[in-house]
Amino acid sequence: WVPIDQGAIDLGGASEVGLAADTSRSVGHSATIHGIRDCDRVGGLEPSDALARLTRALAGRIAVFHHAPLDTAFLDRALRREFGTGWRIPWIDTLDWFRRRQADRDHDDAGASTRLDAVREAFGLDERSAHNALDDAISCAEVALVLAAHSRARLLDACKLPRGR
Fold this sequence. Notes:
Blueprint: E1 4-5, E2 8-9, H1 30-34, H2 47-58, E3 63-65, H3 68-83, E4 91-93, H4 94-104, H5 116-122, H6 133-151
Parallel strand pairs: 3-4
Antiparallel strand pairs: 1-2
Helix pairs in contact: 4-6, 5-6
């Protein structure tokens, strides 16, 4: 995660946590996609500790994701499993925001890729390494700030609330 404070990215508050390896399971072929090998998972946190750190970091904040349904579903399941409560934090989905912006502008490239790196490229942002949690968090924060600047909206205006809130 990386905080956005008063419209600026706060790298001093950024953090990345790894999860402890489940010795009964290997990362298998996903290592070729995500670059995480079994040996990289040594010394990680237990899921409950990692989730507690994340929820503390998000206290009073809005989470920002690129394709929020994937992330919020994963976090909802993990929070239910570890603490008996689901995802309760408001969020912004930069993918949805970008798609709506493209549709509103009636772009010819409406079918263009909406992967995080492609959206960054569409806004002229520098390349970042993909599938690294901290780089993805920074990338997503940058895209959220660019979208807000281009739409003249506050980040709060793009916020969605979990069901039941």
